[in-house]
Amino acid sequence: MFEIEAALAQNARDVDAVLGSLLPASDDREARLMEAVRYSTLSGGKRIRPFLVRSSADLFGVSHGLALRVAAAIEMIHSYSLIHDDLPAMDNDDLRRGMPTCHVKFDEATAILAGDALIARAFEVLAEPATHADPRVRADLVVEVARASGGEGMVGGQMLDLLAAQWKLEIAEITRLQRLKTGALIAVSCEAGAILGKAADSHRHALRAYAHDLGLAFQIADDLLDVEGSAEETGKRTHKDESAGKATFVSILGPERARAQSHMLAHQAIQHLEPFSAQAEPLRALALFVVTRRY
């Protein structure tokens, strides 16, 4: 049986080592910026997006070194999004991964700059020859990650999330919001391994379909943790959506129906992995893990 939690822990150690080397500490006058960057990026986390990059890359025989660089770049973008999401102008959170958020630990201006620095560094890493010898592969990575991160993806989803408290959202609208805010970066993480491996379009489509269902299952599980979990378990403030008056999968479906929906999506995601046989066992195990986790 595949030990998903042990694999996630090892992946986190590997990714953190690469992140540490790509985001070195500085003793220049702007050292406070890199201190904030490293504080926010190297403060733990499940590293699920990097795990998706590596697991999808393994399907196509991509070297771990190349996959880890892309995994680290995508985690930089994820970390930047968390820094900015936590700001007073956004979700106004003071706790992340059991630690003070970046703007609380440092200050709001430094947190904004730390996020800016992370997204710039992420695309620098993706574009560097060390990430892949083929410039077309690097260009494809840059385009797909940019699309997933921007107005047609994560940032667009965050805009919808900010507006959500003003609307009475239905399930279809919540699904679209989460597909952009959370699902887009998860999807490109899955597809990145196929891009690195120059995989056939059919394989890219299968991984994207898997990621689509995985992303929604992940978000429903997050919504359940926000309602049923504690700050000690999750490392962040809970009951946020209810306090903000935002509709979620849980507020509309109720906890039990939402939980059943997340499990259905996880099993549906697994079905999309049929073309990859036993090689995709880490991805199958992850789909089941995301809907049963307590953190």
TrEMBL record:
Cofactor(s) it depends on: Mg(2+)
Record carries keyword Phosphoprotein: no
Entry EC number(s): 2.5.1.1, 2.5.1.10
Superkingdom of origin: Bacteria
GO annotation terms (biological process): terpenoid biosynthetic process
Record InterPro entries: Isoprenoid_synthase_dom_sf, Polyprenyl_synt, Polyprenyl_synt_CS, Prenyl_diphosphate_synthase
Entries under PROSITE patterns matching the protein: POLYPRENYL_SYNTHASE_1, POLYPRENYL_SYNTHASE_2
Entry GO MF terms: (2E,6E)-farnesyl diphosphate synthase activity; dimethylallyltranstransferase activity; metal ion binding
Alphabetically ordered keywords of this record: Isoprene biosynthesis, Magnesium, Metal-binding, Transferase
A GO CC term assigned to this protein in UniProt: cytoplasm
NCBIfam families in the record: FPPsyn (NF045485)
Family affiliation: Belongs to the FPP/GGPP synthase family.
Protein's name in the database: Geranyltranstransferase
Higher taxonomy: Bacteria, Pseudomonadati, Pseudomonadota, Alphaproteobacteria, Rhodospirillales
Gene designation: ispA
